Every structure is written in C-alpha cells, then in structure tokens.
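[Discussion] Sanity-checking designs against the backbone

I'm trying to build intuition for which residues belong where. Below is a structure token string of 55 positions. I'd appreciate it if someone posts a full sequence so I can compare it with mine line by line.
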C-alpha cells in the first residue's frame, strides 16, 4: 500500500486547488502542484529528502 507523507506545504496547495465535485478536496491535484513546485526547487537548489516509514 502506498502512502503520501507530504510536508505542511500541501495545505496551501489544497487551498489553491479549491473544492471539486461534491465539495471534495482535490488531493491528487494538490499533490501534483506541490510536486511541480518541488521539481523547480530541486533544479534551482539540488537536495534530497528521504523519509522511510515502517509499519
């Protein structure tokens, strides 16, 4: 089973994305926006953050 463990930045992206059909949060769209921002940041300042969760 896959798990997303985003930083708190995801809340800004959820707000920017807005609600979808039925007033539901569009988490996948927000994750996509956050991913785009992170890709740009990585190109400007290369870094790597790795989090391993067992359980």
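Best answer:
Here's mine. Compare freely.
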């Amino acid at each position: 089973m896959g798990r997303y463990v985003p930083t708190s930045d995801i809340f800004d992206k959820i707000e920017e994305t807005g609600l979808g059909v039925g007033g539901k949060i569009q988490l996948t769209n927000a994750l996509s926006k956050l991913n785009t921002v992170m890709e740009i940041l990585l190109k400007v300042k290369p870094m790597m953050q790795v989090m391993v969760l067992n359980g």
